[in-house]
């Protein structure tokens, strides 16, 4: 079954699932627009004026996007608590509007409290955000004490409409979200297989583009796997089911990545380095036709298409699908491999392992399958999967130790935002006594989800860029709508949807839509002018500068320091996973390898985000940008091999063909020591211990008894060899001395 033969509705659904995993962006946009539209539909017939309509719309928007909890009960409690917070905030904003000094002092205290509230989790973050946003809504609409009773009603309507849309109109249950994320994983896995087919068919001039597509789709598949892992507890019936899904998703991800590497190796004259799949912009190795008979290439193309069909197939499998599945799983046995060169036979083995991972994923996500058409190879694969499923038990994890005082991120950020907001208030009031809060809003926003001076600088730059272009759009839209209130509100809803739909993709785009929307709101409030929009740019630039200044001068967290801290964390997690996996492969006790691998992925994701200021296109430090990309790519390579070792180690208790090899612990000891040496060097410049090199790990295990440990040792050795090479390669850009091997 080819993907091209699928129904248009199914293809559209798959496209949405791939571009927006879990439909999170679509849901956020629909919820927010729906809440605003419902609020306007309630207030407009009641005779509310434009000021109250704008206040109601902004209230429902804040009450919708501020909620962060994942469980519906917790969301309802937070919404209920948010209403009194909003009423108090708007009331204080109106009462203090004529008392400039006292109002400024309260603004700073409110900002400090809102940021400090993040230490109390999602609910503290949400209530702080609602209090802050609604205070500035009162300033935006020019609320006065006499208007408070009507505003209280408007706010109550906004919260009620937000709750109605959230829980009744656009409901999202954890189980439903998990189902959509699973579908997104399937579609992205199928797209990665499509990229593998393109890589197989690419000519010498097309190899770089084909490889870049494989890289991009591998990264997107990994992104979806992390999203699934972060929501397993809420979206699965129990912890055992969560761990089963986590295991099957990890297996499928590793098998797909390994298949791409084997295919690249088969097409190139030299061995393809795993780093090639992880370093953006790295050129593809020189490729030629597949070695061996042409018939093998035809079979390979056919089987990759069959694998893609297996990934996308849901529901009861027909005889044709069962036949494809049986054929692909048969490649796990040497006697079923077609006549071909050794590298091409490795690709067929990779297809067999990927088919096994896909079958395990189908069983974990869709339940038991029809076994009537199973071949012996398929039946054996099912038995292996069933044995693994039975061996999965739930274990508790330890909580990380929390920092205290000014070292706590929330406390430090609260102090920084307060200082930056003070500067923004002073400078903003010098520019305008009526619109000064724009500078404060920008200062606040550039601190959200940032943790270093570099991140704040990049975010401030993006906000200013989006604001400048948004001003131009606002001018055009204001001229278009004129005095048409309904048309203006309709365009506001479109811009709000676009703002929330694009927010996770581009902060610049989000800022563009926000500024364009504000131009329309000022048109509705009859306060629109060219000067107002120019002032918007000036206040935004001032707020960004104040935020960067506060981040750089008050309890600063330098980008280098943050990336070094996160790098040490990644190396520690890498050491833990490798050590535990090798220990289990050597015959030691079972460990929580899935949890350790997940912690490694999360730490690597944090590091990847933190290095964005260093890899941003506008950075003048070109050498540092290249080094940062190279280090992150090497770490992703190390993480891939560590995950593969962990996945292999988890097979030991259930697979009779896999035996523990006690020699592995000694052979891999050098690699683990080297990882810890690099971590110590990054954490402390005074550490001068070198990274050891020496004979290959395979040579350390060479003896006459290798056969008695099972053929799995060969696969483990390949991963250990690549991991050892990547770790040594990591030492050089991090200025860690490398000890020459003994002659």
Automatic annotation (TrEMBL):
Write out the biased-composition intervals (Acidic residues). Answer: 385-401
- Any stretches that span the bilayer, and where are they? 21-44, 74-94, 100-117, 124-144, 150-179, 437-457, 510-528, 540-557
* InterPro entries for this protein: Memb_transporter_dom
Print the keywords alphabetically: Cell membrane, Membrane, Transmembrane, Transmembrane helix
Identify the residues that the record assigns to the Integral membrane bound transporter domain, covering every copy. 424-549
- Grouped into one coarse class, the protein's main location is membrane
Region Disordered, as annotated, extends over 365-409
The family note in this entry says: Belongs to the YccS/YhfK family.
Against PANTHER family, the record matches this protein to:
MULTIDRUG RESISTANCE PROTEIN MDTO, P-HYDROXYBENZOIC ACID EFFLUX PUMP SUBUNIT-RELATED
Protein name as annotated? Membrane protein
